[in-house]
Design goal:
The chain is mostly helical. It folds into two domains: 2-72; 76-125. The protein has seven helices and no strands. The termini are close together.
Amino acid sequence: MRDYVALRLAEAQSDDALANDIKRPERLQDELWKQVVAMNNAAPPTATKALFVESINNVVEAQTKRTEMARHPIPSTIWLALYLITVVAMAKVGYQSGVSGPRRSAAMPTMALTFTLVFVLIADLDRPLRGFLTVSQQAMIDLQNKMAANP
């Protein structure tokens, strides 16, 4: 479990580590699961054991979600659709501006900026380990510190 937590933290600090090395966390999970099965078979079941098995199962599920997100970023067809929507909207704004005369509306730059921000946010959300919006790793750091303090 200590190795697994260390791997998760190292992954969060490096670019594309999850996409490049998916086998290592899977091997660590297999080792964890073998230990859980051995522990569960060694003695009669208890409520504590059931909670432990459930928590390890949650770790495996979370890793599966992370792996799927790394393997399946936003498809290029969705990006193409977003670009086309933007082009059509900006063309419409330009046409409306041309029809309305030489007076410029303050809404045009605001709309262009809004479309740009939407693109930036979508791209940033597609990469949860880097960018402007990142997931805090403080809970994992705290867990690592607790495990180091209590060997």
